Please model this.
Amino acid sequence: MCDRRNVRRVDPASHPAPAVPESALADTVLARLTAAYAPAADPVRAEAAAAYMKHIAPFLGIPTPRRRALSRTVTAGLGRPDERDCTAIALRCWRLPEREYQYFAVDYLRRHVASCSSGFLSVLHHLVTTVPWWDTVDALAAHVAGPLVTADPALARSMDRWIDDDLWAARTALLHQLRYKEATDADRLFGYCLRRADHPDFFIRKAIGWALREYAKTDPTAVRDFVEGARTRLSPLSVREALKNL
Model:
């Protein structure tokens, strides 16, 4: 598996961090969020969670069911956000050190992605390339990038650029169609897999196999034919994952 210390980071000069917009809703959410999460911290669980996640970030040590219950109290009674609110909440959560705050932002964006326009893609790029690891990137790929591209198919051209970008942006591009089923652009999916087939990193090779395996639930013949034709180019890991259920 990839060691997080060896993961190539995005060049900050080429992708400057988005500005955090003013948002009264974000002020309320962040005040409630830190007030709810901090007292629930468990240092023993926190250390175990950080170790499991290869110390990508410190943790508070809040189990997922408890964290999501607390999150419901944070958002209770609040109105629907607009894109400005979503941007402010996500970026402010990403600035907090403990990983659970970023999990909150991911869940919040999943719930409210319909409030975001195509312009949110630059914010999403920042999220998937800043403190990046599979625990946030995969959910953002399938549940935020995917719906954004569905809402504006022109954004597929951005995914065409991301596939050659930072490791985690490339993984996002590979996985953004994960929930598309019959709407999957198979040519684009297979093209992405071939473009990154020789990538040495575990997370890219695994993503290729996962994306193919998921599409195989919709069109197993197409995936089987593609893998057989590309077997000499795909890594054994990608092939094994792609054909796992066939």
In short: The CA atoms of residues 9 and 139 lie 19 Å apart.
